[in-house]
DNA sequence: CTGAAAGCGCTTACAG
DNA sequence: CTGAAAGCGCTTACAG
């Protein structure tokens, strides 16, 4: 396997010159550069990232931390977005999955001594105070994507949930719904996702529009471990909704996948959607259109790009013009809320 | 940032001993090991992968190459599967996207001199002869996942398309369909995906069951670039099908997403599914159930795990008991083929 | 069981 | 514009 030295010998120059020529840094004469490039080509030379990294102190690696799985609609889209801006800049994107608070703990605790990454993008994780302290003290920049709070992150990208919920509740209000509710997902108890913030935003938006406590209900998400399956969680939630005293005529559901399953379960139980209960989701994922689900569209792919742009600037030591970016959702109206 | 040397000083031993103790290699006394572990903890020590890599010659990195996007159902599931087995073994999984033949070319041509990965998993790419030659000569093992041919790869994992198509055609035959066809996807012209193999397998299966040339049709996939959008490709294909002389009463479609879109377009054009045309997809992806699509289920998540297990063994220099694994699909019957 | 030392393949001041 | 040399932080024979 050819090394810098081999290329240097071939081109009749020193390794320093080869290094400079290949990376386009420092002045190297046109002629020398060409000679070197040819020599490099001829032996299929590729820089050893390990050696470069060790010498330069930069790993050219950014880690993207996601909860539970890489292959969810949100996570995979965010990773793709980040990849699109990081790859052309020469960085490897290294996914890291955490499933339990121990996983996260191990990851965060190793951060202070970690020389294996130049930046971190963290998806849908809110940091408790201890982690905030650790993140603040490390030299590696971190960007929170879809985090509830800015705490601990050098920069954040998230969706404006308050405006989103105003859009949703506004639609329900204009359709004449007087009793409305919010349905939280079953959750991974080790992570405080965006659920609480989203239901809080829902309640605030509703009160602003004149709904009072008796007209509002929140179906709280339970620990996912309580259920044998996703389907069981859905049908249990469906039953709770149906049995509810002064049952709402419209529901905002935390995410599309749950809303879609719920719509199916409700209909199976004889509840008509949207006539008896109207439904609004959140995401506009790949199944929402087919399900005829009215929803709040967000764009994790774009969020991944933005987070990557931020981390890129931070890694270059730049000061961000807008470290905390708030994106707006788009209300997409479909059958699950009936005709406008 | 603490280095091995710092830990050694703290524990009062040499760096060699620290290195051995931390990695659990070589004999180190219980007492020494504990002292070292404590010292390491206390300064949040983490090994520098770059330095380890440079010294040991192993990068602890495996690249997974996918076409066009990370966030497709197939690709993201495969990556997740690979991650699950590679991460516990200490390897980073580094996704790499190729969109054009130039991308692939650049990647493959750099392989011979590449010291930046220990193994490669390549998804849905068939190698032409030149690449086969390059791959054969490099020292890094490669696993082909969903490749049409074994050529060039140290090992492969794929689905048995011949059996799959026999399942599908068998169902159509038993349902009494006498004129049947296969619909290819619009394709990325830079990559020869599995389309041709799949339609070939369809034709073989159909002939074996007694269908003759006049009863069979193949709607060939066109260069995706010809269309302004996916929807346009779909509606064009739909029109071709409808206009077909001696139109088939049942179609196998190359993948679910296209089948689902096609079902929608056909119905919109007044063709009843399954009464006028029955449809069978391929994948059983997350939308197939909702669409009521009969389909051939495959499991890219499992394929990713298997490919990772193979590459792991190859990287350890082991000889594979079964280098070429063929998985079976499961026929999942739903409304798009009517009642059995 | 432990240590001294060479070496992995680069980058980067420092000189010239 | 170019080169000699130090050094990045580890691993791994080699000795003892």
TrEMBL record, chains A, B:
* Highest taxon listed in the record's lineage: Bacteria
* CDD domains noted in UniProt: HTH_LacI (cd01392), PBP1_LacI_sugar_binding-like (cd06267)
Q: Where is the HTH lacI-type domain?
A: 2-56
| Gene3D superfamilies attached to this UniProt entry | 3.40.50.2300, lambda repressor-like DNA-binding domains
Report whether Amino-acid biosynthesis shows up as a keyword of the record.
no
**One Pfam short name:** Peripla_BP_3
Say if the entry is tagged with keyword Transcription regulation. yes
- Alphabetically ordered keywords of this record: DNA-binding, Transcription, Transcription regulation
- Provide the GO MF annotations for this entry: DNA-binding transcription factor activity; transcription cis-regulatory region binding
Q: Write the protein's name.
A: LacI family transcriptional regulator
- What organism is listed for this UniProt entry? Galliscardovia ingluviei
């Amino acid at each position: 396997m050819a090394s810098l030295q081999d290329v240097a010998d071939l081109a009749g120059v020193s390794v320093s010159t080869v290094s400079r020529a290949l990376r386009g840094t420092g002045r190297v004469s046109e002629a020398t550069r060409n000679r070197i490039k040819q020599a490099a080509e001829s032996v299929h030379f590729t820089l050893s990232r390990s050696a470069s990294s060790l010498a330069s102190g930069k790993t050219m690696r950014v880690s993207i931390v996601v909860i539970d799985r890489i292959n969810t609609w949100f996570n995979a889209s965010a990773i793709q977005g980040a990849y699109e801006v990081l790859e052309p800049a020469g960085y490897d994107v290294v996914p890291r999955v955490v499933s339990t608070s121990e996983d996260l703990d191990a990851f965060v605790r190793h951060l202070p001594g970690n020389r294996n990454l130049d930046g971190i993008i963290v998806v849908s994780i809110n940091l408790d105070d201890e982690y905030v302290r650790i993140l603040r003290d490390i030299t590696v920049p971190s960007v929170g994507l879809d985090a509830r709070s800015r705490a601990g992150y050098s920069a954040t990208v998230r969706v404006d949930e308050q405006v989103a919920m105003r859009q949703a509740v506004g639609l329900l209000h204009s359709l004449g719904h007087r009793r409305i509710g919010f349905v939280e997902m079953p959750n991974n108890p080790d992570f405080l996702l965006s659920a609480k913030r989203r239901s809080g935003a829902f309640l605030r938006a509703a009160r602003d529009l004149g709904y009072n406590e008796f007209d509002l209900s929140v179906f709280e998400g339970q620990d996912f471990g309580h259920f044998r399956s996703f389907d069981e969680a859905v049908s249990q939630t469906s039953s709770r909704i149906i049995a509810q005293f002064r049952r709402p005529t419209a529901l905002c559901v935390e995410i599309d996948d749950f809303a879609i399953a719920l719509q199916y379960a409700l209909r199976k139980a004889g509840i008509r959607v949207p006539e008896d209960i109207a439904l609004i989701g959140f995401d506009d994922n790949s199944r929402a259109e087919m399900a005829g689900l009215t929803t709040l569209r967000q764009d994790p792919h774009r969020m991944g790009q933005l987070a990557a742009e931020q981390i890129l600037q931070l890694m270059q030591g730049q000061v961000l013009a807008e470290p905390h970016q708030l994106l707006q959702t788009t209300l997409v109206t479909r059958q699950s809320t009936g005709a406008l």
